[in-house]
């Protein structure tokens, strides 16, 4: 690989969050000659940043930039803390009280981490070139943050997003998809955010669960139903919403590593001259 397409990794371990009441760990992937450049760069903020090495993110970025598939981009990979409490939907925990600190995590991203990043790094001022993404619960969190901060992030990616997140146990006689899936209800009750674009990935082997016995696993049902809610808001499939379904994919890092180049090319495609 030519040296001009190498990425440099900086690991930040001393960012204390008052909101999360803990030290945070963040990996920063910087393009080659970043320090010598006077330009600003697109931003990808990635939940579950501790998995960056496992999915081969550095080599992936180098290959895609070498092939001119994507622009040089700064990737900020935030290591997870207590995923079951810090990821989720900020306005409401699920029926098991998971996600109780999701509001704090969202505020950490927007009021502690991003101001620090903007001070330290040459990030773009163009929200169309700022994206947030995550895996599973991290994907749910990413969508929640983007939905509430559509003025900052205009692109969001969810890999096998946990859109089953619900306020009532699905085994309850009173449960209904329509009323109890928290993210779906949030989109339904929310307002259209101009310019926001969505990328979703699922796999046929994400899980075995099929709540409504319709022959389609819940992971796919929940994602497609969420896309329906977005289209009702005015977002256009194939323009504002992209959906990738992997036939042989599973709910794991290997599958998300396979899907990641598709997302990166969707979010940061090289501008045609």
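^ Assign residues to that structure.
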């Amino acid at each position: 690989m030519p040296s001009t397409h190498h990425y440099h990794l900086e690991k930040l371990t001393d960012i204390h969050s008052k909101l999360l009441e803990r030290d945070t760990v963040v990996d920063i992937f910087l393009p080659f000659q970043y320090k010598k450049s006077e330009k600003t760069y697109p931003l990808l903020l990635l939940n579950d940043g501790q998995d960056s090495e496992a999915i081969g993110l550095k080599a992936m970025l180098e290959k895609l930039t070498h092939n001119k598939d994507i622009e040089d981009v700064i990737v900020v990979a935030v290591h997870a803390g207590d995923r079951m409490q810090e990821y989720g939907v900020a306005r409401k925990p699920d029926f098991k009280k998971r996600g109780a600190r999701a509001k704090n995590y969202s505020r950490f991203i927007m009021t502690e981490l991003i101001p620090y990043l903007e001070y330290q790094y040459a990030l773009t001022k163009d929200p169309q070139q700022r994206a947030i993404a995550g895996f599973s619960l991290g994907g749910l969190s990413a969508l929640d943050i983007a939905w509430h901060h559509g003025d900052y992030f205009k692109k969001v990616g969810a890999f096998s997003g946990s859109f089953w997140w619900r306020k009532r146990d699905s085994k309850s006689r009173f449960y209904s998809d329509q009323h109890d899936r928290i993210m779906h209800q949030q989109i339904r009750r929310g307002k259209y955010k101009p310019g926001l674009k969505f990328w979703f990935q699922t796999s046929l082997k994400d899980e075995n669960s099929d709540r409504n016995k319709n022959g389609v696993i819940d992971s796919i049902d929940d994602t497609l139903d969420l896309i329906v809610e977005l289209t009702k808001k005015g977002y256009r499939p194939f323009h504002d919403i992209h959906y990738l379904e992997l036939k042989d994919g599973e709910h794991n890092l290997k599958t998300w590593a396979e899907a990641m180049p598709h997302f990166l090319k969707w979010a940061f495609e090289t501008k045609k001259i």
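The chain has one domain: 3-268.
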